[in-house]
Amino acid sequence: NWKLTNYIEKTVAEIKEKVGSQKVILGLSGGVDSSVAAVLIHKAIGDQLTCIFVDTGLLRKDEAQKVMENYGEHFHLNIKLIDASERFLSKLAGIDDPEQKRKIIGNEFVHVFDEESHKIEGAKFLAQGTIYPDVIESQSVNGPSAVIKSHHNVGGLPEEMEFELLEPLRELFKDEVRKVGEELGIPHHLVYRHPFPGPGLGIRILGAVDAEKVRILQEADDIFIQELYKNGLYEKVSQAFVVLLPVKSVGVMGDERTYEYTAVVRSANTIDFMTATWSRLPYEFLDTVSSRIINEVRGINRVAYDISSKPPATIEWE
Ligand code: XMP
């Protein structure tokens, strides 16, 4: 694709020109935008780029390990993996209000990132995977999502950070970012991942968060996602995940009575994430997902499927 090749060549040249021999840091989340930005910048300036990956302890199962394999080993990106799980979990202990959880997670992220970025001596630029829709959204002060939920994808870093911004994807739409990613050699499944919210599993564990609930949710969510891929359904839905309710119910396993948590499987189809419908997933598929979660995940004995549209429901449960 000559247009993309052109775009990549032009942008690589611009990055080289702008950065010169300076150092750049980038917050790598494992999501599409920051990953494509990282690989693109690395193509331009190699090891002058240091990526910081913060494991909040609220990520999908094995996420940190997968990011290190995919981008560290395969693309040779220089990634500093910061395991901040305990910090996040201890700050969240006993907190059940969704907006308060978001604030705590957002603030903690900024603290950890700030600390780590200052350990990288002489870094002049801060790179971000900001894409065109982020630029627009951050300009509309009264955008519905800004009112309903305090997203922290854009403008989440403190003003006083003395870095110059480097945002090579600022003019691109999502589908263009994906194409650039594939052109750069990032595997298809990584470039077509569903979006994942900044507060992560922190807002998919309803009520107070703890390490055991994180483990339970990671296992259940991983099964659902595996099955979507296995059945060719992953790219037919826009966002899919599992939610863990703080509700226990009675069940029976063999001769024993169980009293365990309820998981909700959620899958939404949407174009812009402002309105969405629930995915009409096949019954047989849902049956497989439910059986696997109940049989394989210790701590869950009941699975429900969310059949709510947005509005009035939101895609996430918190
Ligand atoms: P809702 O739940 O409002 O979600 O229908 C719409 C889209 O936004 C994502 N989302 C978030 N992303 N920080 C984020 O970075 C947040 O606090 C947040 N809340 C919701 C959600 O996953 C969906 O894609």
From TrEMBL:
<comment type="function">
    <text>Catalyzes the synthesis of GMP from XMP.</text>
</comment>
<feature type="binding site">
    <location>
        <begin position="29"/>
        <end position="35"/>
    </location>
    <ligand>
        <name>ATP</name>
    </ligand>
</feature>
<keyword id="KW-0315">Glutamine amidotransferase</keyword>
<keyword id="KW-0436">Ligase</keyword>
<dbReference type="GO" id="GO:0005829">
    <property type="term" value="C:cytosol"/>
</dbReference>
<feature type="domain" description="GMPS ATP-PPase">
    <location>
        <begin position="2"/>
        <end position="193"/>
    </location>
</feature>
<dbReference type="GO" id="GO:0003921">
    <property type="term" value="F:GMP synthase activity"/>
</dbReference>
<keyword id="KW-0332">GMP biosynthesis</keyword>
<keyword id="KW-0547">Nucleotide-binding</keyword>
<comment type="pathway">
    <text>Purine metabolism; GMP biosynthesis; GMP from XMP (L-Gln route): step 1/1.</text>
</comment>
<dbReference type="GO" id="GO:0005524">
    <property type="term" value="F:ATP binding"/>
</dbReference>
<keyword id="KW-0067">ATP-binding</keyword>
<keyword id="KW-0658">Purine biosynthesis</keyword>
<comment type="subunit">
    <text>Homodimer.</text>
</comment>
<protein>
    <recommendedName>
        <fullName>GMP synthase [glutamine-hydrolyzing]</fullName>
        <ecNumber>6.3.5.2</ecNumber>
    </recommendedName>
</protein>
